[in-house]
Amino acid sequence: MSRANRRSVVSVTAPTCYDHSRAELAEILGDQPRYRVDQVWSGLYEQLARPSDLTALPKALRARLAIALPSALRLIDERVNDGGDTVKYLWELDGGARIETVLMLYPDRVTVCVSSQAGCAMACGFCATGQAGFTRQLTPGEIVEQVVVAARRGRELGRRVGNVVFMGMGEPLANEGPVWTAIERIHDDLGLSARHLTVSTVGIVPGIRNLAERPLPVNLAVSLHAANDSLRDELVPINRRYPLDMLMAACRDYLEAKGRRLSFEWALIHGTNDRFRDAAELAERCHSLPLSAHVNLIPLNSTPGYPTKGTSTEGVIRFRDELVRLGVNATVRRNRGTDIDAACGQLAAGQPVATPGLRRSRTEP
Ligand code: SAH
């Protein structure tokens, strides 16, 4: 295969604004005075400006950059929950794939939950994204721009986006290269600290091992949901390839390499993984690590393709108390965005476009 052909197979989308490295931007600006590179780069990453809004540039250059640095995300729909503290964006990408981004405003911090793939191939039955299947990988620019758009919105509200979680659509460790490039850009150029970046994985062991080798000590979240192989094989099919002992060994090595916080995500499913014996198994797994993991509990959110209910509020508290009694750090996560299908596991990018009364209905927090 010729090089050109190979490239067309590997890269199916044209680079967008936040795909370019600084060196590539310098190439695009090759006929300009050198200070323009810094000017445009800081415009994009510090001012969070669109190329067409860089008013310090000559008009003709601005027009040229608007074409050379196109936006990756075309807004299809924006939904705001009743409380106004959660915003879900539905975007269309080059080629028509759709993804979602969720912005969450808390009193003490602002977090953006980004997608790393359009769809997901991991096929977890309880997750709406898994039910829909895989469409394509995202490029670094498509990931970074999700953060930029959220940060722009935050700034309009007088808030700074300080946290990024890779808990939107997709499996970040099944799209490692682009995800890592995006993480570096978010850290180096948007200025977020590695402590505030969290990669959430279904448990791709080689990906966890590669992450341990990377220089930035980002947080790792593992979506565990079951602490024995027979249940986990059922809930999280990739467990058949990377069973629990192998996964726990990779977690242990990650902790030893990074000394960062590790969390286990546990979606409580009524009668399935919310019993005392599930808590005991989970506690045992936590205690097998050199630094105890933090368990984040959330009742399962309903999705069209999975009939079983989430655990009741009382059941969640009971499970949490049992873990605490067994010496495990556990918190119940606030469940954001259920009324706009923006909560964990509800991102499917396929809902009808408009929900009357929910669009642009936000007032400031
Ligand atoms: N693929 C990655 C990141 C995306 S999912 C991962 O698996 O970690 C983000 C989180 O939502 C994961 O912890 C996932 O297990 C959880 N989740 C998926 N479906 C859910 C549902 N219906 N209710 C609650 N949490 C869910």
Write a short abstract of this structure.
The protein is an alpha/beta fold and 365 residues long. The chain has 12 helices and 12 strands. Strand 7, helix 7 and strand 8 form a beta-alpha-beta unit.
Protein described:
With 365 residues, this protein is α/β, with parallel strands linked by helices. It is 35% helix and 18% strand. The chain has helices spanning 3-10, 22-28, 35-45, 59-68, 128-132, 140-156, 176-188, 205-213, 229-235, 244-258, 276-287, 313-325; strands at 74-80, 86-92, 98-105, 110-113, 117-119, 134-137, 163-166, 197-201, 219-223, 262-268, 294-299, 329-332. The strands form 2 sheets. A 10-stranded mixed β-sheet has the order 1-2-3-4-7-8-9-10-11-12. Helix 6 (140-156) packs parallel to helix 7 and helix 11 (276-287) packs across helix 12. The N and C termini lie far apart (56 Å). The structure holds S-adenosyl-L-homocysteine (SAH). S-adenosyl-L-homocysteine is lined by residues 126-127, 167, 171, 200-202, 223, 265, 267, 298, 300-301, 303, 344-345.
Q: If strands are numbered along the chain, what order do they take across the biggest sheet?
A: 1-2-3-4-7-8-9-10-11-12
Identify every distinct bound molecule in the structure, by name, code or SMILES: S-adenosyl-L-homocysteine
- In N-to-C order, the SSE pattern is HHHHEEEEEHEHEHEHEHHEHEHE
**Annotation, overall tally of beta strands:** 12
> Roughly what percent helix?
25-40%
* Main sheet: strands, sense, barrel: 10 strands, mixed
Pick out the low-confidence regions.
Answer: 1-11, 351-365
- Whole-angstrom Rg: 21 Å
Question: Cα distance, first to last residue?
Answer: 56 Å
